[in-house]
Design goal:
Copper amine oxidase N-terminal domain-containing protein, Immunoglobulin-like, seven-stranded mixed beta sheet, 11 helices, 442 residues
Amino acid sequence: MWKVAFISTLLFLGISAGALYYQWDEYRTEATKQSVLQHDVEATFSGKEMEVTHRIRGAVARTYEVIVPNEVKHISCSEQKACVKRQNGKTIVDASHTDELSFTYRVPVAQKEPLFMKEWLIRFHTAQPQQMTISLTDTVHPKGIWIADGKLVGYVHKPSFSLFMWEKEGGKAVPLYFQAQPLQISLHDRLSVYAAKPIDHSALSFWQQSDVKTLVITPFSLQYMTPTFVIIPDRVSFSTAQRAYVRSQLEERFPNSSVPDWVWDLLIAYMTKTEPVTQQAKRTFEQLQKTLTKEEQQTFWTFVTTHKHEPLTMKKLDEWLGNAYGGHTTFFQDEKPYMTFTERKILVVNDVQLPNARVLLKDGQQLFPFIPVMRTLGYTVNRSGEAIFIEKDGERWRFFINGTNAVIQQWDGSLYIERTEFPKWFSVYVSETDKNIYVVGQ
């Protein structure tokens, strides 16, 4: 009966709307044939609430876990008294006796403009592919525009009502936006833009290259962003909107992350090809450019952009940075002002492994930890201020640290000697394999 009623309505609307429906129905039928969980949603807005008829086709599981927004009220089912149940701490829908489900519910709507509904549909949590077709009839506003996070199939304005239709892949939320003031609709490949006037070319280019499918530029103060659906006030600058959108992308890529704001600033700067804003992000950006080659920088950013669906941590950033450079680092974890790495290889001195004494990698040099190496080789090492005194078998050396052409360098409170300088002053031979670095001395 619902199809008859719906077709009658479309015939009343005219031939173009009828053609639109048949194209729509063919799409839904094909989706069902491909074992897609097909959602057919018919919503009617009456001013105080949204009345929703939600039909499911192509069910292949006995039960489905569902997410019922708090806004959804008065759920009823055509086949069962209780079609949505609580079981083992989860909300489920029983589909054991049919591959088609149908239920209705209502969603109270606040009386204000712009009207924005973030959650208003029951969602199915399943690995089965999902498709949605949504029709919305507004009996209150014959003019004005409804916008959803989905592909606009078509819309019709009549003296007593308006009708909008959308398609959407997947089973995520479908936010809805309404304003009475007219907006121009322009299509740019996959991107639909709703705005009072054309947007700047550079802004359009950015949104086209992003994952955004629907962009709304509103005269109101509402701002909302997901990777595919963006609402921004027309008074917000493009650069501000761009940074906010990229951050929303990153936060969805790395859910439940707890990193400082300057890390997001750094990632946003890379993604938008702009300068960082915070001082720590600026220093980090400079260190990446100074310490890593262009290829190593690209490798690091590739690690960042290809990992997803897990929380971002400072330890992970250090791991990716170390993998790009070829060493260990705690640069992000310690929030150091300069970037250093240590060799991943174990240091072996006269057949004695020194797992806690790592070779430092800095500015293209290998710096050997001076005191543990020398003492393992049998030297005595003492320090007095800036002077280092070394002795073995009656021979003595004295060096001053960090002076001009200094042989001994100090980093983070530890003393180091550069690999090529080492044999010039002491009887040692240095070699390395894939796993170890060897120092052999008399």
